[in-house]
C-alpha cells in the first residue's frame, strides 16, 4: 500500500491537467506572485509538475519543460534560463539524447558565465550521466569528479553522494572493483552524515554486493530497504535491492518472495524494466523447483509481451535466451536452439543500434566542441592583431631571454626525456598486457556464448538420431554436456572479471588441471599451508604468468618433469618453476615471442622480479618474486 499511495498525488495532477490546460497552472502561479517573482514562481511550478510526470507521462513532461523555457526567455534572467534549460535537457534525455546534450551544455555555459554556482552540481551531474549512457567513461568520470568537487564547495551533499555512487557504478562496469567499492563506501558515509536516506539506501545496497558473508549481506540489504522506505522516489532502488537479495539466496521459494516484492514495485510505479527483470529472474527460481510450467508462464504470458510492447530489444534478447534454457529443461532442444538463434539476432541488432547511437552522440559533442573552438579562434585572431605592434617591440627583449634560457632548457629537456622514456616503457608494457587481457576476455565471452548454442544444437541433433543400443544416446548427450561445462570453466578462467570468484589457490590448481586435460602434462605443485595475502593486481599477473609457464611446458616439454613450488617469506611470495625439457638460448629470448617478455613485464608492473635460467639441453627454471601485500589484498 505504501508504494501505491506515493504516486496518488501525481495521478491526481495528471487527471487535472487533462481537464485544464498547462497554461492555466502557470497563469495561476503568476497571478499569486508579485511582479518580481512571476517568472521564478511559474518555472518552479512547472518544474514541480514536470517531476510528477517525468516517469508516467513523458509527453506532458516535455511540454512542461518547453513551457518553462518559454517563460524564462520572455524575461531573460540568467538563473531562470539555467533552470529551464536544465529541465528541458532532462526531458530529452530518454528519447532524444542529441537535444539533451545541447541543452545541458547550454545550461552549463550560461551558469558558468553568469556565476549561478548553486546550479552547477545538478548540471555537472546531468552532463556526466549523458556521457555514462553513451559509454564515454573517460568524460563521465571527469564530469562526475567535477560534480563532487563543486558539490563540496556549494555544500550540496545530495549530488555529492549521488555522483560518488555513480562513480562506483562506472568503475564496476569497467571491472575496477576495488575503486568501485571505495566510491560506494564514500557515498554511503556522506549520505549517512547528512541523513540523505535515498542515497544511503542505494549506496549501502551496492556495498552489499561485495559482501561474501550471506548473513551480513542480508542484514545490509534489509538496512538499505529501511533507508529507502523513508525516502521519496526510491522505488527503483528498492526493486534493485529486492532483486539482488533474490539472486543471492539459495532457497528458490525465498528468492521468489523477493522477486515478487520487486515485481509489485514495478507494477505499482509503471517501471517496465523492473517488471521484466523480476519475471526473468523468477524463471530460474521456478526451474530450481522443477516447476517448468511456472517458468514458462513468467516468460510467455508476462515478460516477453511486456518487453515487446515496450520495444525493448535489449531485454528481449535476454528473455529469448532464458526461454531457450526453459525449453532445454523440457527436452525440446530443437525449439530451444531456435530461440537461442533469435536471442543472438536481437543481441546483434541491439549492439548495432547502441553503437550507432553512441557514434551519433559523440559526433554531436565533436560538432559542439568544433563550434566552440571556431569562436575561440576568431577571438584569438582579433587579439593577435591588436597586440602585434607590442609583440614587435618586445621581440628583441624576448629573444635575449630565450638565448639566456636556451642552455637551461636543453639540460631540462634531456632530463625530462630520460624520465619520459622510462614512463613510456612502463605504459607500453601496460598497454600490451591490457590488449592481451581484453582479447582473452573477448575470447572467453565468445567461448561461453557459442558453447551453449553448440551444445543445445548437437544435443538436439543426437535426440533425433535413431540408436538401437539402450543408454548410448544418453551417454553421448551426457559427455557433450560435460564437454560444454569444461569449455565454460576454461572460459571463466580466461576472463579477468571471473577471477574474483576463485581463490588464488583454486586458480593455480585449475590451471594445472586444464593443462593436464589438454596435453597430459603432469605438474608437481606445492603450495604453502598458510594462506597467501596478495593484492588483486598481483593475483591477476601471477595467474597469467603461471598460465604462460604451463602453456610453454605443454608445447616444448610435454614429456618432461615439471615442478612448481610456491614459497612465502615475510614480505614476498616466490614461485620456483623448473622442467627438464629442451631449454633454449636465453640470449635469443626476444625471438621467442611476446609470452616470455610478458613474464618479465608483468612481474615488473607490481614491483616484483623474474629471473630465467636456461640453456639448450639443460631444461628451464624461473624464480619469480611478488610482494605479499600491495594495495587491496586478496586471500588465497
Salient structural properties:
disordered C terminus; 23 helices; two-stranded antiparallel ribbon; 636 residues; alpha+beta
Description:
It is a single chain. The chain is 75% helix and 6% strand. The protein is an alpha+beta fold and 636 residues long. Among the domains are: 1-95; 234-333, Alpha Horseshoe (Serine Threonine Protein Phosphatase 5, Tetratricopeptide repeat), CATH 1.25.40.10; 387-501, no CATH class; 503-635, Histidine kinase-like ATPase, C-terminal domain (Heat Shock Protein 90), CATH 3.30.565.10. The strands form two sheets. Strands 1-3-4-6-5 form a five-stranded mixed beta sheet. Strand 3 (562-568) and strand 4 (572-579) form a beta hairpin. The chain starts with a helix and ends with a strand. The model is unreliable at 1-38 and 630-634 (pLDDT under 50).
Oligomer: single chain
DSSP strand content: 5-15%
What is the CATH architecture assignment of one domain?
2-Layer Sandwich
Strand line-up of the largest beta sheet = 1-3-4-6-5
C-alpha end-to-end distance: 47 Å
CATH top level assignment of one domain: Alpha Beta
Determine the structural class based on helices, strands and strand pairing. Answer: alpha+beta
Number of helices: 23
Percent helix, as a range, is over 70%
CATH T-level topology of one domain: Heat Shock Protein 90
Instruction: Give unreliable regions as ranges.
Output: 1-38, 630-634
Task: Count the beta strands.
Answer: 7
- Supply Rg: 31 Å
Rounded average pLDDT = 76
- What order do the helices and strands follow? HHHHHHHHHHHHHHHHHHHHHEEHEEHEEE
Largest sheet: 5 strands, mixed
Shape: globular
